[in-house]
């Protein structure tokens, strides 16, 4: 065999190429925003608000272990009796006697009983019985009088169980959003668990551009096909409320889609399957009403209602699988190959790692919504640490909080060469119509907005 005629390998000459060695140590995460345990800035922030912690249907005859904001807890339902309806309790997992787990406790008509020594605890944490001790024993009387099992107030509402984990003297009114009762819309509760920090899950709601790529050109049309068109973006900050407005051109139609975030973690968007930008739609509402709840620093859960009906998504999606599609674009239980071929939200956000290396991000102009809401959340965390009260979404007691997550599709053919400037005007006009009507009673407000959108369509321009 003759000598080889292949050329020897040479060192690449491109300046700055192959920078792996220089970047081998990953950047750190944003500890202030991402960490949520007791005493952390993020943890104290979240503890000033009501959040869903479970679906009602998950709480049965047996205690339900739960982990929320880094705390190990137990949800349980009392068994009820003739003179007392059942109630739900949310308590610390460990019994204050000898630290046995109440996951193995017994649910009774007055509370939960520890399996180890039979101590009985009310839903508010009161120690009702210490049966291994004499009733008149001084130590037993003292422990029942002066000690309590850690417990939190809960509200059961429309298939979700909400809890407040903050200081009792700062407990806010439970917020009622207009989305809780939209005429003609039926709801179905759902949950989606994420093996990553809450921030990277929530970021997506203020990132409308990802829909055009992750859910369209990369994985195929996971939602409506028209979402593949990259639109004109506008971001609006109103106190603790943030809107991401994406206005697209779809043939002769202009599609205005509004994603919404109310701090700390309430999110809405447009429809998943009801609109594709090719037919008129006036103030169609969000496919979900959703909270992104931190479980701990490296896990989170989306607890939500899917919204179905004329102004929501098609009723055929009102199933467990349909809600999974609405939440992330694909079914949750898929093979690794399926996830690689058609990644959805869980693959995108969990692929960042348990906690994303925020200090290695390169945020761009299209990330303005993410930048705005993170900046505001950080400011609120620091204000809470300094003793200021947390601003609440419920500004007018008893009056539903107005929300703006929606789809509007108007027939407006191209008018001139600068169509993107035209789209920007339309997006701004649609949002302003919503703001101008927000002080009206809900039924009048929705009619005012819808009539205004039809007038805008008829006029052909703002």
Describe the overall structure:
This protein has 462 residues and is an alpha+beta fold. It folds into 2 domains: 35-170, Rieske [2Fe-2S] iron-sulphur domain (Rieske Iron-sulfur Protein); 178-459, Naphthalene 1,2-dioxygenase Alpha Subunit, Chain A, domain 1. Helices cover 24% and strands 25% of the residues. It is built from 11 helices and 20 strands. It has helices at residues 31-34, 41-46, 138-146, 198-202, 209-218, 320-328, 336-341, 345-350, 368-385, 419-436, 442-459; strands at 50-55, 64-68, 71-77, 88-92, 106-107, 112-113, 120-121, 127-129, 151-152, 154-157, 160-164, 185-194, 232-238, 241-250, 253-262, 266-268, 281-285, 288-296, 299-309, 406-411. Strands 12, 13, 14, 15, 16, 17, 18, 19 and 20 form a 9-stranded antiparallel beta sheet that branches. It has a 4-stranded antiparallel beta sheet with strand order 2-3-4-9, with no helix packed on it. It has a 4-stranded antiparallel beta sheet with strand order 5-6-7-8. A hairpin with a 5-residue loop joins strand 7 (120-121) and strand 8 (127-129). Helix 10 (419-436) packs antiparallel against helix 11. The longest helix is centred in the last third of the chain and has 18 residues, at 368-385. The termini are far apart. The model has no long low-confidence stretch (mean pLDDT 92).
Notable characteristics:
11 helices; Naphthalene 1,2-dioxygenase Alpha Subunit, Chain A, domain 1; nine-stranded antiparallel sheet; globular; four-stranded antiparallel sheet; Rieske Iron-sulfur Protein; 24% helix; alpha+beta; 2 domains; 462 residues; single chain
């Amino acid at each position: 065999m003759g000598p080889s005629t292949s050329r020897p390998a040479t060192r690449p000459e491109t300046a700055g190429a192959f920078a792996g060695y220089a970047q081998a140590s990953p950047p750190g995460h944003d500890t202030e925003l991402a960490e949520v345990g007791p005493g952390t800035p993020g943890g104290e922030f979240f503890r000033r608000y009501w959040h869903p912690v479970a679906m009602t249907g998950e709480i049965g005859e047996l205690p339900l272990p739960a982990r929320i904001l880094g705390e190990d807890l137990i949800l349980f339902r009392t068994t009820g009796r003739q003179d007392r309806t059942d109630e739900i309790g949310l308590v610390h997992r460990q019994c204050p006697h000898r630290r046995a787990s109440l996951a193995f406790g017994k649910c009774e008509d007055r509370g939960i009983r520890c399996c180890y020594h039979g101590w009985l605890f009310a839903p508010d944490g009161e120690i009702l019985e210490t049966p291994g001790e004499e009733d008149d024993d001084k130590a037993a009387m003292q422990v029942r009088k002066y000690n309590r099992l850690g417990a939190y107030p809960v509200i059961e509402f429309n298939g979700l169980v909400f809890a407040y984990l903050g200081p009792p003297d700062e407990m806010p009114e439970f917020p009622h959003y207009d989305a809780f009762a939209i005429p003609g819309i039926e709801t179905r509760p759902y949950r989606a668990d994420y093996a990553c920090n809450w921030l990277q899950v929530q970021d997506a709601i203020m990132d409308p551009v990802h829909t055009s790529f992750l859910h369209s050109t990369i994985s195929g049309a996971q939602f409506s096909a028209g979402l593949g068109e990259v639109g004109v973006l506008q971001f609006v900050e109103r106190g603790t409320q943030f809107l991401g407005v994406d206005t697209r051109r779809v043939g002769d139609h202009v599609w205005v889609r509004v994603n919404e975030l109310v701090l700390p973690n309430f999110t809405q968007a447009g429809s998943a399957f009801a609109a594709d930008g090719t037919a008129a739609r006036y103030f169609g509402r969000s496919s979900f009403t959703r909270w992104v709840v931190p479980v701990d620093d490296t896990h989170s859960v989306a607890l939500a209602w899917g919204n179905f009906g004329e102004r929501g998504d098609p009723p055929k999606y009102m199933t467990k699988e349909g809600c999974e599609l609405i939440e992330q674009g694909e079914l949750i239980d898929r093979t690794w190959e399926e996830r690689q071929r058609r990644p959805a939200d869980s693959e995108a956000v969990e692929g960042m790692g348990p906690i994303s290396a925020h200090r290695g991000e390169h945020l761009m102009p299209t990330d303005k919504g993410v930048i705005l809401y993170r900046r505001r959340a950080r400011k609120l965390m620091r204000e809470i640490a300094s003793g200021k009260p947390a601003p609440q979404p419920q500004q007018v007691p008893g009056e539903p909080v107005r929300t703006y997550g929606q789809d509007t599709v108007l027939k407006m053919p191209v008018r001139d060469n600068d169509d993107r400037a035209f789209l920007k005007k339309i997006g701004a006009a649609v949002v302003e119509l919503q703001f101008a009507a927000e002080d009206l009673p809900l039924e009048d407000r929705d009619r005012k907005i819808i009539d205004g959108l039809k007038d805008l369509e008829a006029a052909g321009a703002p």
